[in-house]
Amino acid sequence: MATSNLPAIHPGEILRDLYLEPLDMTPYALAKRLNVPRTRIERIVAEKTGITPDTALRLAKFFKTSPELWLNMQASYDLKIQAPALADELANIEEYALAG
């Protein structure tokens, strides 16, 4: 299984550094615009929770991106975090060999 050597970057870091800070927008202000609880955005930018499909759809609409952008960032982060934790267990799984 190939994984890149790039660090795991939480989508909350991207949201905070590339979207909120340049707009001088607080998590509270974004939450209000997205019609979600303030704590949802605060927890995402604090890197305590991930992006859900609901949040991805709302962020995509507001920032004129795609929901896949947000969900792919979350999936990439989750895989990079889980891969080392499961490395030993994954090493013990025998790969399926196609008959040829």
Describe the structure.
The protein has a domain of 69 residues: lambda repressor-like DNA-binding domains (434 Repressor (Amino-terminal Domain)), CATH 1.10.260.40. The protein has 5 helices and no strands. Helix 1 crosses helix 3. The longest helix is centred in the last third of the chain and has 25 residues. The protein is elongated, with a radius of gyration of 17 Å. The model has no long low-confidence stretch (mean pLDDT 94).
CATH class (first level) name of the domain at 11-79 = Mainly Alpha
Looking at the overall shape, the CATH architecture of the domain at 11-79 is: Orthogonal Bundle
Strand count, sense and barrel status of the largest sheet are: none
Q: Give the radius of gyration.
A: 17 Å
Strand residues, percent: under 5%
CATH topology-level name of the domain at 11-79: 434 Repressor (Amino-terminal Domain)
**What's the CATH H-level superfamily name of the domain at 11-79?**
lambda repressor-like DNA-binding domains
Q: Mean pLDDT, nearest integer?
A: 94
Q: Distance N terminus to C terminus?
A: 22 Å
Our count of helices gives 5
Structural class, from secondary structure content? mainly alpha
How many E-type strands?
0
Secondary-structure element order, as H and E? HHHHH
Helical content (DSSP H or I, runs of 4+)? 55-70%
Extract low-pLDDT stretches: none
General form: elongated
